Amino acid sequence: MPSSLLQSFLAALQSSLSVLLTLGWGVLAGILGLLSQETAKEVSHICVEMFLPALLITNIGKDLAREGEDALELWPILVWAIIYPFISLLLIWPMVKWLNFPTWSLGAVAFNNTTALPLLLLQSLRTTGILDSISQGDSIGSEDQATTYFLLNAMVNNVLTFALGPKLLGETPKEEEREDQVGGYRPHPILTVQSLEDAQEEAEEAVERTEDTPLLSKRIKQGAKHGQTRLKRATHSAGLHIKKWYYGLPYPIRRILYTIHSVINPPLVGAVLAIVIASVPFLRTAFFAAPKEGGVLKAWFTISLQNIGDLFNALQMFVVGSKLYESVVHPPKRKEDADPNGSGEDEPHDPNNLPKDRVVRFWPVAYMLVLRFIIMPGLSIGLVYLLAMKTNVLGNDAMMWFVLMLVAAGPPAINIASMAEVAGESEEVQGAIARFLVICYAITPAICFSVVGALRACEGILDQKGL
């Protein structure tokens, strides 16, 4: 029997509040000085570049290995993950074009938080038990599938975010800078070109910082110094050769290579590895079968990946809370503050410092919040309901319906702030984006209305179909 509306609402509200409280603990860590801004950035990059790929490999790989030949039935998730950001853009672009909405609202509306927030919300919904009504007799299996669906959506969204995000936020850097960046995804390029003297000096400084370590003998210090110097020289030489080869290519080929490079990121690599592992029989057995059935990697290697993957959800949201606190307490300085000798007047020709982009106004914010928390979820619920009721395109998996209804809901992705930096936005614009993100995440519990609507819609479909 479908759960009562009040019970569903209270359970969804509790789950949403748990997500907000996880953010709150991150804010508290920032207030108490337990997590510096630099440390938060490093932890965030570890989460995205190590923990999330591990989570993708273990969850998607395990689910695809269980599904076998039914893996192609996941196509609705992939297709909808591509479509709904462009629908969001269609609903916000006229406002930017004719109603003076900030340029960064394009990225803020198109790309929502598709990783830590929905996964953490799903964990809380499991605890409340309100998903049992759509689990179709297999609550554990269906909820694991929901995790896989959210992760697949996150993988597609990550590719779109870092391929299109900087372009949506404004002017991109000049060609040399743009092509040296790693898709806007990593904090630093993989290979940087510097003088050989600088490379040797950095290596010497790195060793000097450890000279007060009592357990490090002089011989080992000298070996480490020479080893680090050789490594720096080798890295420098490799970087020079790669850049010489790269810039020797025709411009169209460079643009193609840059485009490919810009969408390759650790989550995408993790998802591809998961698909490969699940598709190759002996790898599937080694990674996911019971040890007595040939799973020689499951008890130690797969479990280790699962352990670090499980760190992602709460830790990433915790770091988001700390980042939001830092963005409010230590906002970027305005140009006139940074340059007291300047005139304080804006450059009228600067496309990355438009007046409309530097302020957070009520009506644009209100429209974007309504779009993110009401319009897009409502559109998703209605579309999925019609397709599931009138056709068999989406199959009979109620948990897939539920995820399709929810993936477009929620606050913007926190990384639009870093995308703004990649796009060359001014510090005032980055500060406005940070203030907007604080507002969005403060009302995160509003997602409970979308959860209840999606749950009731799925229950209605199951009732009508007799499933």
**Portion in helices:** over 70%
Mean pLDDT over the residues: 80
Main pleated sheet: none
Q: Give the topology string: H per helix, E per strand.
A: HHHHHHHHHHHHHHHHHHHH
Taken as a percent bin, the fraction of beta residues is under 5%
Rg, please? 24 Å
Structural summary, described in words:
With 467 residues, the protein is mostly helical. It folds into two domains: 346 residues, Na+/H+ antiporter like fold (Up-down Bundle), CATH 1.20.1530; 61 residues. Helix content is 71%, strand content 0%. The protein contains 20 helices and no strands. Helix 14 packs across helix 19. The protein is globular. InterPro entries: Mem_transp_PIN-like. This is Auxin efflux carrier.
What secondary-structure arrangement, pairings included, does this model have?
Blueprint: H1 5-31, H2 37-67, H3 75-98, H4 105-110, H5 116-128, H6 139-169, H7 175-180, H8 196-208, H9 218-247, H10 251-263, H11 266-279, H12 281-288, H13 298-309, H14 312-329, H15 335-338, H16 362-390, H17 398-406, H18 416-422, H19 427-442, H20 447-465
